[in-house]
Amino acid sequence: MNINNELDDEDIMSEEKSLEDLIENTKKYPSKSESWSKLGEFYFYELNDYEKAIENLNKAIEIDLHNEDNYIKLISIYKEIEDHNNTLKTINKLIEMGDNKEDNYLMLCKYYESINDYYNAIDTIKKVIEFSPEEYNYLRLAQYYDKIEKYDDAIETINKLIELGIAVNDGINYFMLGNYYRKKGDNDTAKINFNKAMELDPSYRDYLENHNLDEETEDEYIV
User: Fold this and answer.
1) Quick one: pLDDT band at residue 72, thresholds 50, 70, 90?
2) Chain mean position to CA 187
């Protein structure tokens, strides 16, 4: 314990042996978010007491509005109990108060994906791309368009990715183009793109030779 009688990481670790110790920490250090956070963690992970965990993590957040870890812990609890409204509310608060905008928007995007809300996922991944115009973010955007059968938008997204020249492996991009053209019913253009995919990445040859172009292909390229 330091001489200023303030809670630090060593204090927390040494005093988190029991629920009683953690409760005592909140009494000794009521203005320290760490004490409430550790108590909330204990209620969640050790006792499965979601109500108490939420209560204590919210106290931790009230004390330190910019500590992203506490929001993430709270989000985990809301996901666990399938409280969708509070999950979204807390992720959006994390985006507002946290510094790591890219990762936090991506968390929101993946949550929308998990509940099959692809329209909001599209809007959110576009924000991620503003921070990080990387290949995997464009691939994710194209897949969301695919999910809502907006194949022209998916094709435009992949073509933009190819145009930017940031792809690690253009084989997957031409494979995806082929798949989207196939879903549009344009098998001639689909074959052109599938052939290009095989040219760039021979590993697609076995896959394509063993699948009928008229059949649905699995989303094996999900990122």
Assistant:
1) very high
2) 34
